[in-house]
Amino acid sequence: MILHCVFFTFRSDAPQDARRAVLTGLAELCADLDGALAFESGPNLDFEGKSQDYRDGFVIRFADRPAVKAYAEHPTHRRLGGQLCDLCQNGADGIIVFDLDVPGAQLKRPTKKAAPWGTALEIPQRRWFRNPGLRTSS
Questions:
Q1: Under DSSP, is residue 38 helix (H, G, I), strand (E, B) or coil?
Q2: Which residues of 5-44 are buried (b: 16+ CB within 10 A; e: fewer)?
Q3: Lower CB density within 10 Å: C or N end of the chain?
Q4: Beta-bridge partners for 119
Q5: pTM for the full predicted model
Q6: CA 45, 130, 40, 107 torsion: positive or negative?
Q7: Helix or strand holding residue 40 (H, E)
Q8: How many CB atoms lie within 10 A of CB 80?
Q9: What is the DSSP letter of 107?
Q10: What is the DSSP letter of 47?
């Protein structure tokens, strides 16, 4: 499994609706993309005080490298990625991406429950997603 981890900070003047639209669009893309297993987004809680430059982020779980490639090349991803860059501090330079190879990882499906910033939803057969929620403070 590949964990596609994306970290960034929205500009303080970036409208909440635009933030939400980009993250929702990415979640919807993943819901329809073969090999995308899960999408999660939320604020960085930075418990260790080591990542204060990145206040927001999302993680996508992919079955394998071809699924990541399909996502990266998808026109919707390219469009939404451009929108995300426009909303972030320092644009594309303010976004950091890690693609972690997690051999033998198993996706553990959540139960349906409310989360502080969204809702965990079970998707039939193999996928679950959280609706992206956003901080209201900047």
A1: strand
A2: ebbbbbbeebeeeebeebbbbbbebbeebebbbbbbbbeb
A3: C
A4: 114
A5: 0.77
A6: positive
A7: strand 36-43
A8: 19
A9: P
A10: T
Tokens 């992206």 locate to 132
- The domain limits of the chain are 2-130
CA pair distance 132, 120, nearest whole angstrom: 10
| Mean pLDDT, contiguous 10-residue spans, the chain (138 residues) | 97 97 96 94 93 94 96 98 98 97 68 42 43 44
Backbone angles phi, psi at 18, to 5 degrees: -70, -40
- Provide the pLDDT for residue 106: 62
Task: Report how far residue 8's alpha carbon sits from residue 95's, in angstroms, rounded to the nearest whole number.
Answer: 5
Q: What's the gap between Cα 51 and its chain centre?
A: 17
> Helices in 1-138 by DSSP H: which ranges?
16-32, 65-73, 75-87
- Considering the domain 2-130, what is its CATH architecture? 2-Layer Sandwich (3.30)
Distance CA 71, CA 23 (A): 14
The pairing of beta strand 114-115 with beta strand 118-123: antiparallel
